[in-house]
Amino acid sequence: MVLLAPFGWLALLLAPQQELPSGNVFRDQWETLEFQGKRIGSRHQEYHNFPKEEADLPKGCRKIRETLTLEMNRFGQPIKLKQVREDLEDASGNLLAANMEQSQNNKITLQLKASRGDRGWILLNQTSGAQKIQNPSMIPLGMAALEEKILSGQPGPWNHYEPMVHSFVQVQPRTKGDPSQIEVHFKGPNGETLPMAATLLNLGNRNRIQVREFDMPGLGRITARPTDQAEALKPAKNALDVGNLGLIPLNKSLPKVPTPSRVVYRLHAPEELDLAKLLSSDERQEVRLLPDGFVELTALKGQPPTRRIAPPPPREYMLVSRMVDHTDNIIRSMAQASGAFNDDSWTAAKRLERYVKSTLIADASAPISSAAEAARSKHGDCRHAAILLCALCRAAALPARTATGLVYIERSKPGVGRAPYLGFHMWTEVYIDGQWIGLDGTLGKGGITPGHIKVGDQSWYQEDSMAPLIPIQKLIGMVQADILKVD
What we know:
The protein folds into 2 domains: about 25-240, no CATH class; about 250-485, C8orf32 fold, CATH 3.10.620. Helices cover about 15% and strands about 40% of the residues. It has 8 helices and 26 strands. A hairpin with a 5-residue loop joins strand 18 and strand 19 (about 295-300).
C-alpha cells in the first residue's frame, strides 16, 4: 500500500519494472483519485500469490503491485503520469524486495530498487547507478502487511521502505478520539522528522477504508475512494491544469521600470505550516513573525558579490550527484562554449546564466531530469534551468546549488487582463567571495529580483529522489500574500 504518494512536483512517473516474479492474481482493488472534487486518476492494487513448486520463493509469500496513474495539464500542456511499485513479502508480511519506476508521457524518469544483501539492505538508484546500504532498526514490512496492521488497530511503530525519500522510514498510526479516523505519520530511519505530511484514513464497516487522504507534492490534498475498475478508469471530462494551482494572488502589481530594489510582503498560512520557520532568512531576505500570526518578509534585489575573506563552502557544492552531473562531457562542453573560463568568477557566472537562458527552450511538460539530460534535450522549465546552471557553474569551478521558492509573475485573468501572482520557482545560487549570489537561468538578467522569495536550497549531493523539493511544495494552495511596500 502507498500511504503517501511518491510524486515530486508532479514530474515523476512509474512504469512497470519486471524484476520481481509474477504469481497468480488472487485479488485486486481500485480507487479513484480526486483533487478538489475533480477526478485526476486512479490507483490499482494487484495481489499475487505463488504456487508451491516455486522453490526459489518462501512458502506463503505474496507480491503486491500498485499502479498510480494521473492525467492533467501543466500550463496547457498535457502530462501523463504513471507509477508502478512492487513489494515482495513473506508469509509474515516482512519485506523481501521492492522496486519502483516512474515515467512521464511514457518516458521512464526514475528506477529504484531495494534488496537484501550481506551487509544490510541495498538501496539502488538504477537510473544513476548510485547505491547505499541501510540497516533498519526494525524488520521492514511490505505495503500490504503494513496496511493490514494499521487497519487492525495495532499501535506500531513499524518500518517500511518509502520510495519518495528512497529510504526506510518509521510509520506510526494515531487516532484522535474517533477510532474510525486514523492519522498515519512518518519519521526517518532514526526517528528524525521528515517533510512528509500525515495520511488520513476514514474507516467504514469492518474497518475497511472508505476515504484515503494524502498530500501529493506539487498538487495538494488528494482524496482516494474505493470503486470498481470501470469507474476508476473513466476519463476525466476536463483535464486539471496543475500549473495554475500553485499561483498565489497578490493585491498589487510590481513596476517593471525601474526594477524595485526592495519589496515588503505580508504572508499568512495555517498555523501548522509554521511559515516563519519554513521561509529562508539570509543577507537578501528577512523574515519576521508578526503578533497577529502573519509573517512580514522583506526581499531585496540581488547584488553583485563584494570582496571579503571567507572560508570555502562545504565540498558537497562541488561534488557530482544524480541531478547535478557536471562531469558529463556535454556539461563540460557547454561550459567551455559559453566562454566562462575566460572571465573572473562573477562575470563567468553571469555569462553562464545568459547561456542557459539562450539555450533552453521553455517546455512545461518536460520530465524533470538531470543537468546532462536537460542539456541534451534543450527543453525544460525553471527546474531544468536551475539544475543545468548549477552544473555549468560547478563545471567552471564555481561552487553552486539550487534554490526553491516563489517568484512574482503576471498571468492573464478573465475580465481583468494581466493579474499579479506569486508562483513556484527554482533558480541557482553561486558562491563567490564568501557569499551565495542568486542567478536565474529563465531570466538571464544577471541576478534575481525582490520578486524572488526563497524557501530553501539544495546541493543534491547523495539525493536519489525529489525530496529536496518538498518544503516549497508545502506552500502550494496554503499561502495568502499581499505586497505592503515597494521601494
